[in-house]
Design goal:
Shape: globular
Strand order of the largest sheet: 3-2-1-4-9
Structural class: alpha/beta
Distance between the termini: 71 Å
Strand content: 5-15%
Mean pLDDT: 88
Largest sheet: 5 strands, mixed
């Protein structure tokens, strides 16, 4: 009978990881865990303490810091696979999972399914001829070298690509491999995994090539399996059920999706919402259950497409899946910095990101040129961002793989602020109170079109007091709301006073907050 060694890459929620590992190993299967080195050390210690005594649990011998789109994700997978092959000689299959995956069949069903299908399950479509990549760069992923992360270092990523293109610094793909692409959620037989590990030791040229490709977790295993395994032994599909919404982001599953998930022709599903506690509990119990009959209808994707299509033309009889996601999520934290002087908030955000591991976005609702990842077009205009604000912010949480994020916001956007403050997420506000000189306000009048090149000094003198009162009124409107979790720092206050407010806002230690607030140029014009 088959025995599955699950390969789990994870970076958060230690309790869920422990529960998942205990559930999957309770029926005799195995799990090998790579816990991101960026994560909190105390979370990894909790996992090790709980799962260390379990003989069916192994840990990657080396933990590395992982970044979306980077080679580090493949490297972490290989470390976890190596640990699994050594620790579990009786494992017949190796199944890649994330912390957001849960089984939608029983272990009994999964083992019988794998026993009756002697093949590898992995999406592997020809990189160049398939339409698997819908948006963004394609050939450039391979023929140029990528040393920077597009999400964390967007300017460096595209500037590096631009200079390689200008100088004609393309490179050859290793001549004897045909690059494939597909989902990173695979299930491979033991002999395939062992062949891949041997290949990585023998073909250093191929390893060097993939190290600097962009998003190699969608090409590395997919290419090697197709290179090493006869085509007749490859089933070009994943055994993990997932769907994507209009914006190219994974759809979350909730409590009322239980029956639909069990009817799909898959063994696992991704992503199960952290808020779907009933669904998680029912699926958790299902894995160890015996003698369950599954009626496979496999209608999930077609049903989703149908309902979404009716919604677009005003004939919806059931809600779109993403409208159930109108909330940011009770488990998430949104930190909003409100400041009229955009350059001050941007400076503060930059200092925070240098000292605290937190995602942050500048004035995405006010500044069209704010650096943002490709989100399928929803980010393309300020109007779209405002109309789909909660969906947009949810997508940013997903893209940055975080549950805590900072946004900068202009105090004139009171409606937006109120909307986020009414969400079920934990939302905190930091008001950055700046002084406004007459010179600054005169410049502000010109930047906003209230004054032009021909506006006289006398006219500006009359306009400046009105502007000052208007800017103070914007902040007064926000203060009058008396929001919970509202902090304030001021240009007039000392670094020590401001550090106390920043400490509460970020939930960091006092020394870190004080170090951030001691930048001498923070409030300068």
């Amino acid at each position: 009978m088959s025995r599955i060694a699950f390969i789990l890459l994870c970076h958060k929620d230690p309790k869920a990881i422990i529960d998942q590992a205990e559930r999957l190993t309770a029926v005799g299967d195995y799990i090998s865990i790579h816990f991101d080195a960026r994560a909190k050390p105390e979370h990894f210690a909790m996992i090790k303490e709980a799962l260390g005594p379990n003989p069916n649990v192994a840990f990657a011998k080396k933990r590395i810091k992982c970044g979306w789109g980077e080679w580090s994700l493949v490297e972490a997978s290989l470390y976890a696979v190596e640990a699994a092959t050594e620790a579990f000689p009786r494992a017949t299959h190796f199944y890649m999972l994330s912390g957001d995956c849960m089984s939608v069949k029983t272990a009994e069903y999964a083992h019988e399914f794998l026993d009756s299908n002697d093949c590898d399950f992995i999406e592997s479509f020809d990189f160049f001829s398939s339409d698997w990549i819908k948006t963004g760069i394609k050939e450039e992923r391979l023929i140029y070298r990528h040393w920077f992360n597009e999400r964390n270092s967007k300017w460096l990523f595209y500037k590096s690509l631009e200079w390689q293109q200008r100088l004609g610094l393309t490179r050859e793909i290793p001549h004897d491999i045909d690059v494939q692409i597909g989902s990173q959620w695979w299930c491979l037989r033991r002999e395939t995994v062992e062949a891949i590990l041997d290949f990585t030791k023998q073909r250093k040229d191929v390893m060097r090539f993939f190290r600097t490709t962009w998003i190699p977790d969608e090409t590395f295993f997919q290419t090697l399996v197709r290179h090493l395994v006869p085509a007749k032994e490859i089933e070009t599909r994943t055994l993990t059920f997932l769907m994507f919404n209009d914006y190219g982001m994974p759809v979350n599953f909730y409590n009322d999706h239980y029956d639909m998930l069990l009817a799909q022709n898959f063994l696992f599903a991704r992503k199960i919402s952290p808020e779907a506690k009933e669904l998680r509990a029912r699926l958790g119990e299902l894995w160890a259950t015996e003698d369950v009959e599954f009626r496979i209808s496999d209608e999930g994707r077609n049903l989703y497409k149908f309902l979404a299509g009716r919604g677009r033309v005003g004939r919806r009889f059931a809600p779109r899946f993403w409208e159930a996601e109108a909330t940011l999520g009770r488990h998430r934290e949104l930190l909003i910095m409100v400041c009229k002087k955009w350059h001050v908030a941007k400076r503060l955000l930059d200092q925070i990101k240098q000292r605290v591991d937190i995602a942050g976005v500048e004035y995405l609702f006010e500044e069209e040129g704010t650096p943002l990842p490709d989100l399928g077009g929803i980010q393309s205009s300020l109007d779209k961002r405002a109309r789909h604000r909660r969906v947009l912010v949810r997508m940013l949480y997903e893209v940055y793989e975080t549950d805590k994020m900072i946004l900068c916001m202009d105090p004139s956007n009171l409606d937006l602020l109120q909307d986020f403050m009414s969400d079920r997420s934990t939302t905190r506000v930091l008001e950055i109170d700046c002084s406004f000189s007459d010179e600054y306000l005169a410049g502000h009048a010109k930047r906003t079109g209230l004054a032009g090149d021909h506006t006289t000094d006398e006219q500006l003198e009359r306009l400046v007091p009105t502007l000052r009162n208007d800017l103070h009124h914007e902040l007064d409107r926000i203060r009058d709301k008396e929001y919970e979790n509202y902090e304030r720092i001021s240009e007039e206050a000392s670094p020590e006073e401001n550090a106390e407010a920043l400490e509460r806002f970020l939930e960091v230690d006092g020394d870190t907050a004080l170090e951030i607030m001691q930048i001498h140029y923070l409030f300068s014009d």
